[in-house]
From TrEMBL:
Alphabetical list of PANTHER family matching this protein: V-SET AND TRANSMEMBRANE DOMAIN-CONTAINING PROTEIN, V-SET AND TRANSMEMBRANE DOMAIN-CONTAINING PROTEIN 2B
Protein source organism: Eudyptes chrysocome (Western rockhopper penguin)
Domain Ig-like: 1-116
UniProt keyword terms in alphabetical order: Disulfide bond, Immunoglobulin domain, Membrane, Signal, Transmembrane, Transmembrane helix
Cellular localisation: Membrane
Record carries keyword Disulfide bond: yes
UniProt-recorded name of the protein: V-set and transmembrane domain-containing protein 2B
GO CC term, one of those recorded: membrane
Main location: membrane
Topological type in the membrane: Single-pass type I membrane protein
Length: 152
């Protein structure tokens, strides 16, 4: 069982429309019951993973639930499932991690698979990223490192 399409990190301007793909294929020839859910996590994935790791196992679900909001659910019988998340007129508060969760009910034990993507929302009037990238490379190629002695 594997994702055939996963969402990618994306940066958009306020007011833009976006689509995040998520598609999954179950292995084997038997008919499956698959469910796909889109969740919105306020915290970036790394922080969330860290929080999960340090919390005791019993409170694990609590941590996830307080930080996550379910957006939509699609359920199918079969081996393939896909569900594109569409956001129109994106706002700054939509920024965050979007997680596609696929639950595979085919076996006695439910398998859950996850894929995440980060949505960044720039204000309408933000300068293009290109200039920022050039500025950074200019700073890095400057003489600053020599003043600090050899790099470790």
């Amino acid at each position: 069982a594997t994702f055939t399409e996963v969402p990618k990190d994306v940066t958009v301007r306020e007011g833009d429309d976006i689509e995040m793909p998520c598609a999954f294929r179950a292995s084997g020839s038997t008919s499956y019951s698959l469910e796909i859910q889109w969740w919105y996590l306020k915290e970036p994935a790394r922080e969330l993973a860290h929080e999960l790791a340090i919390s005791v196992p019993g409170s694990r679900s609590k941590v996830t639930n307080t930080d996550a909001t379910k957006i939509s659910t699609v359920r199918v019988q079969g081996n393939d499932i896909s569900h594109r998340l569409r956001l129109s007129g994106v706002r700054r508060q939509d920024e965050g991690v979007y997680e596609c969760r696929v639950a595979d009910y085919s076996d006695d034990e439910t398998q859950e698979h996850k894929a995440q993507a980060l949505l960044r929302v720039l204000s309408r009037f933000a300068k293009p990223d290109v200039q920022a990238a050039e500025a950074v490379s200019h700073i890095q190629s400057g003489a600053a490192p020599r003043r600090h002695g050899p790099a470790a």
